[in-house]
Every structure is written in C-alpha cells, then in structure tokens.
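Progress against Task 2.4 (sequence-to-structure conversion) is shown through the following example record, which the project officer requested during the mid-term review.
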Amino acid sequence: MSKPEITKQTPLQGIKPELTSFEMKCLKFVELYMMSFNASQAARQMGYEGATASAQGWEFLHSPFTQEELKKRYEQHASDNKTIRQEIIMMLHREANYFGQGASASARVKAQIQLSKIFGMEQLNVKAEIEHSGGVMLVPMVSNVKDWAEVASSYQEQLTRDSINI
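Structure tokens generated for the chain above:
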C-alpha cells in the first residue's frame, strides 16, 4: 500500500513554500483533525487505511510541528470565541434594554436571564443563619397519633412555661 501524496494544490491556509513534504502532510492532518479530534479518522481521510491509519495518525498528532500548529489554532480559536462572546453579550444587552417598536417584555426578560447565566448569576445564593430563641413547639416523631398526643402535650407545657418566664 503506497502512501498518498499531498501536493501543493491542497487548499491549506498560510502555507509557506519552504515546508517539507512531511510538514505539508502535518498541515493537512491538522485541518482534518480539527474537524473530529480523532487522529485515526484524520489519517483515513488523508488516504491511509487500516492499522496504518492509526499508526500514521499517532505519528502526525505527536510530531512537534503538528503540536505547534495545533497550539496556534487553539489560541486563535480562543481569541475568536472571546470576540464572539463579547458580541453576544452586547446583543443580549441591547435586547434586554430595548423598549421601542416591536419590543416585548418576554424578549427583554429572556435576554436578562441569558445575561445572568453568562455572568454566573442564575442561582440565588442566600445563606441564612437561624438561631432558635424559643417560642416554637418541637413536633415529636412517633409511630402513632396516641403516642404523639402524649409527647406533644409535654412539649406544649414546656412551651407555655418558657413563654411565661420570658
């Protein structure tokens, strides 16, 4: 089985003419790998078959040239995502504050909900410290109503005594 040749006619972004044949293949591999994040699948799409595809995919993925190219692409992707995120926030902010013609309260509320999720405010974190200062009758846990009435009457008497002594 012969390995397929990648020619300079392959549409790759930012190709420098001084790249080696292996580096050209690595760039093609990166393009395909970024679609599925599966090295074997990317190698199969390049024309490798069977176990050769897995081995070649591993070789491409672990080459320093490929790792450097993937790092560049990931950094660019993160930068692009930051810009897109900012645009989405601006659009939601505009919708949340639009009261003009065709505006709807439900659209404003939905935009505000989405903004609160983006900024991590969707959960109301309320912590309350409760201190028992008397005046509340504790309800006993018993198996039947007759036993409950007997236990509850003693709790009721204690509650009455506590409220008189306050």
